[in-house]
Amino acid sequence: MTQDPVDLACKPWWTQDRVRLLLADLIQAELARLQPLTADAVALSASDLDLDALGLSSLAFIDLATTVAVQFRLDETGHDSMLMERRRLADWVKTVLASRRTCDETIGFLTSGSTGQPKLCLHALALLEQEIEFFAGLFADRRRILRVVPCHHIYGFLFGWMLPARLGIPVLDARRILPSAVLRQTCPGDLVVGYPAFFALASRIPLQVGEDVVAVTSTSPCPPEVWQALAELGCARIIEVYGSSETAGIGWREGADDPFCLLPHWTRVPGSPEHLQRPQTAGPPCFWPLPDRVLWTGERQFQVLGRRDGAVQVAGINVYPERIAACLREHPEVAEAVVRPTGTGADPQLKAFVVPTNACQDLQGLPNRLHRWLTGRLLPHERPRSIRVGFEIPRSELGKLADWEE
């Protein structure tokens, strides 16, 4: 039986202009991954860009098209092949919209990979719409949104893409503006969609935000000093959203010392304090493990205590990357370190990235010295296979830990 066409008129985010912005963010991220020297956000602003002009190899272009097909679920409607046949941004926009008119049930997002290999997370659009309805009520009085996050990740998709469409207000992409300048140019009624590292940078310069400006932050825990700094800058409200790529939003709060409150569509699982449940559009409720350890302070209130133990298996044995990173930080030539799993399949290993101290006089020889130093301190399966040296821990544009080449 043929499925009835989807009426996108009642979905205000599915317009040509908004889909073009969403695609541009996704393509920009893929360019940075596939061929960094070709990544040019200015070129992507052209509404009818010839995608062959991006200079990607044949294999890289297939990789890019596959990522777009996966995120927008074009394979479900048979529109995925059109990405290779029609290689202009305007055509890709039309392809996405044509696919959505056929089926608008799910959309995919890739995790940041901050705790391992990036993975695809599928979300029912109806459930994301349910979440955005709640926040549309919370932010009903906002007149404009300034976003400093990309729209192809779940947080930016909800607050920088769906929310302004739902509220019918303009949205300004402020990622090419200095953080302090973003806050300085705010106007009454603005909502700034950011993340802790952005707000920390923005508050380093003395300034005053406009009256009745609200800040919303997510992607990682917001430190108390950032809450205080934003309050001192004059933000009328500061809201932190807790969630993950897998779950979307779970809870929210308005104070650094306040517990998070569950969003209306989530409930606790009786007898299982580490799990939540959420009704689905059809069928039984869906059960989710909480991403972090939490302390329940009420039926719907909780405090986040930190990530779970973070163990990964190497040679069938649990190892703890953060403990290994802490060991590396004990070396006098290491200022900062991060350790993560590398490789997939039956034989994953560990790799490390270190930032040297001023005491390090020989950067090239530092990895070998660290390998020798770890030999007497860690078991063989705990030692990173490779150690890379750099002057800054790799992070994504949202400030989350990112992967690196070995």
List the topology elements:
Layout: H1 16-34, H2 58-72, H3 82-85, H4 89-102, E1 106-110, E2 120-124, H5 125-138, E3 144-147, H6 154-167, E4 171-173, H7 179-184, E5 190-194, H8 196-202, E6 214-217, H9 224-233, E7 237-244, E8 248-253, E9 260-262, E10 267-269, E11 272-278, E12 286-289, E13 292-296, E14 301-307, E15 312-314, E16 317-319, H10 321-329, E17 334-342, E18 349-356, H11 366-375, E19 386-389
Parallel strand pairs: 3-4, 3-5, 5-6, 6-7, 18-19
Antiparallel strand pairs: 1-2, 7-8, 8-9, 9-14, 10-11, 11-12, 13-14, 15-16, 17-18
Keywords: Ligase
Organism: Caldichromatium japonicum
GO biological process, one term: secondary metabolite biosynthetic process
Structure write-up:
The protein folds into three domains: 8-104; 124-307, ANL, N-terminal domain (Rossmann fold, 3-Layer(aba) Sandwich); 312-389, GMP Synthetase, Chain A, domain 3, CATH 3.30.300.30. The chain is built from eleven helices and 19 strands. It has helices spanning 16-34, 58-72, 82-85, 89-102, 125-138, 154-167, 179-184, 196-202, 224-233, 321-329, 366-375; strands spanning 106-110, 120-124, 144-147, 171-173, 190-194, 214-217, 237-244, 248-253, 260-262, 267-269, 272-278, 286-289, 292-296, 301-307, 312-314, 317-319, 334-342, 349-356, 386-389. The strands form five sheets. Strands 4-3-5-6-7-8-9-14-13 form a nine-stranded mixed beta sheet, sandwiched between helices. The model has no long low-confidence stretch (mean pLDDT 89).
